[in-house]
Amino acid sequence: MISLKTIELKRFVLTALILMMGGCIYAQGPTTNAGSYQQTDYPIRTFRIYPIPDPRYFLKLNTRTGQIWPIAFDEKVTKQLEATSKGEPLVNIQNEVDNRFALYPTQNTWVYLLLDQINGKMWQMEWHIKTKKAEMTPLNGSSLIDEQQEGDIRFILQSTRNMWHFLLLDQINGNMWHIGWSLKSKGRSITPIN
To answer: Tens-digit pLDDT profile for the chain (194 aa)?
Structure first.
């Protein structure tokens, strides 16, 4: 005959296993595609670090202001470098919101696209470890929505098979734009898709 202690021990073990399994599932959190840079996959963050194809470098982004710092990483602590940011904040302090800005890599190691996810403004960022050589060029000078519609994170970028082109989507109303970036100024464009 099974004793009362044996039954209680089995219940305890079973309960403990169920709690541990639930904790493991919860601890994993949302899964993301390692190559995906869509910001909906990430919790609220003021700063993000983006890897560069060269394993010695990273870019640190202030997601509230759009400011970017190149970081040189070396296994020797004495050779670490965080260069100063290039440029002033891209929004006024009263318009700063976590996750407002996101960086999207292009297939060119040195070029990233910076997106204001609230109003659709974009910049082409050519990074360099020497801040004076880095360039930030606006792709569009104005918001893609009316100022009174600003508030939600609504814009995302999607790469295409052509390295020079992206699609920009307004997730709220479904409007889309064709984004062309280039190392030359006349190859840069933002064109609405009807």
So the answer is: 566 666 676 666 656 656 665 554 444 333 333 333 444 455 778 999 998 888 888 899 999 999 998 888 777 666 666 666 667 899 999 999 999 999 999 999 889 999 999 999 999 998 877 767 888 899 998 899 888 788 888 999 999 999 999 999 999 999 999 999 999 888 899 999 98
| Statement: the pTM of the whole predicted model exceeds 0.85 | no
Question: Does residue 93 fall inside a structural domain?
Answer: yes
Domain count, the chain: 1
Q: DSSP letters of the chain?
A: ---HHHHHHHHHHHHHHHHHHHHHHHHH-----TT---GGGS---SEEEEE-SSTTEEEEEETTT--EEEEE--SSGGG-EEPPPSS--SS-GGG--TT-EEEEE-SSTTEEEEEETTT--EEEEE--SSGGG-EEEES-SS-SS-GGGBTB--EEEEE-SSTTEEEEEETTT--EEEEE--SSGGG-EEEEE-
